[in-house]
Amino acid sequence: MAGNSQRRNRRTSNKKGATIGSGGQRRKGLEGKGPTPPASARKGHKKNRIANAQARQAVARRPAPRRGGPKGTSEMVVGRNPVFEALRDGVPATTLYVQQFIDNDERVRDVLKLAGDRGNINLMEAPRQELDRMTNGLNHQGLVLQVPPYEYAHPEDLTAAAHDAHEDPLIVALDGVTDPRNLGAIVRSVSAFGGHGVVVPERRAAGMTAGAWKSSAGTAARTPVSRVTNLTRALEGFQKEGLTVVGLAADGEHTVEDLEALDGPVVIVIGSEGKGLGRLVGETCDYRVRISMPGGAESLNAGVAAGIVLYEVARRRAN
Which residues contact 273 (CB under 8 A, 6 or more apart)? Predict the structure, then answer.
């Protein structure tokens, strides 16, 4: 009989019941989508439309970056993991470009949260084609972080800071060190052992890139780096100020342990791991010293060598 709900196995509703043994298929739906992204990253929001317009204008005005471009240009960090690591490690940044309609996965949410916590990073949404043009076709994965140019100090600022603190200047100069990670590690050691700065040449040497910032573990914010056009002339300038220039060399006449010159105002010059000190730089040094290595290794990584010598200087000064 129609409408008789007492009949067995008769469906009285179109709704399906719970599936037996679903294996948690609905669990993912209960987890949520994470924190709400900022208004400038939400499609359809007024701030999102304003941010898109600003991004298009900024990209239109900005020339495409070139490798080996002029000094003083900004740098782009591309890719989800590199951008996340740069923000996590405190690398300075001005703008975070986010691709329109990007998959809002966990890494993207983490990046947006870090950028929002900073409070001073502009969030811009841009079409994929614009990000491709900005990065010269690199695999940006929808995230591009703009890092401002590093503000290098003048060599005289390094000695002036030491004198203001009533301390003997302790400066590290690098000759031919091309790996930004080594530069960042040396900046970190200079900061740890009471140094007053690092000097690098403009040509054929690493500069303060995002990679160097990361390796410095944030110490680059308080340890100045000076960039000079001619390292030999810069060393001669330090000598005129009364500093002793000590170069690290495998065939040095002295060892780090017995050189008394390390007790006073000093510039420690470190060359590349492969070629060591250049000829003119080596001739400018007042002393050439070596690190004793009983194990018989031929050379040390530039960052490791710098840490050993800086520790010895700090130990002497503490005593």
Answer: 299, 300, 301, 302
